[in-house]
Amino acid sequence: MFHKYTRNQKGIWVLFILYLAVLIYLVFFAETFRRGGGLAMEYAYNLEPFKEIKRFYRYREQLGWDVVLVNLAGNVLAFMPFAFMLPIVSPKARGFFRTVFLTFLLSLCIECVQLVTRVGSFDVDDLVLNTLGGAIGFIAYRIVQKIRVRRKLRAGKKKHA
Q1: How far is residue 85 from each of residues 18, 47, 74, 95, measured CA to CA in Å?
Q2: Cα(145)–Cα(23) distance, integer angstroms
Q3: Alpha-carbon distances, residue 10 vs 2, 7, 103 (angstroms)
Q4: 3-state secondary structure of 123
Q5: One-character DSSP codes across 25-87
Q6: Using CA of residue 93, residue 130, residue 97, residue 105, what is the dihedral sign?
């Protein structure tokens, strides 16, 4: 399967797998984010869009900016690498809507596992923020691709000049 990939693409595959492993660790096992022990307390979930986002913004002074950034920006940033690397490792995922949809599906799977295992909490706002991160990640991928193509074209013109 991997024989048709370039050396760089194989490297991205390795990074992609490492990224997914770190994401799973952070979401389900990292004690920094108060994982584990969820059965001891009553489980909470949020099905109302933007409820937690508004709450974090409203109480930003009491919570502290570090907590707000980890919860809001962290959810966006956490899924940007997925949407950036996915089109590289899977040519079928090179479209914007397909990549963003796959980001949404990954996020939904994670949220559902959190709901069932009671590790973390199911939050529809996380779906929104993670999917936004996927969209931004794909846009970054497209920008980098355009830069790469321009550089190749310039290098080709210099060789023929």
Answers
A1: 12, 30, 18, 13
A2: 25
A3: 7, 5, 21
A4: strand
A5: HHHHT-GGGT-S-TTTS----B-STTHHHHHHHHTHHHH-HHHHHHHTHHHHHHHHHHHHHHH
A6: positive
SS3 state of residue 118: coil
What is the spatial distance between Cα 157 and Cα 31, in angstroms, rounded to a whole number? 54
pLDDT score for 33: 61
Q: Would you state the structure tokens that stand for residue 37, as one six-digit string? A: 């022990």
* Buried-exposed string 86-118: b where 16+ CB fall within 10 A, e elsewhere: bbbbeeebeeeeebbebbbebbbebbeebeeeb
Q: What is the C-alpha to C-alpha distance for residues 159 and 69, in angstroms, rounded to an integer?
A: 48
pLDDT less than 70: residues of the chain: 1-2, 32-41, 160-161
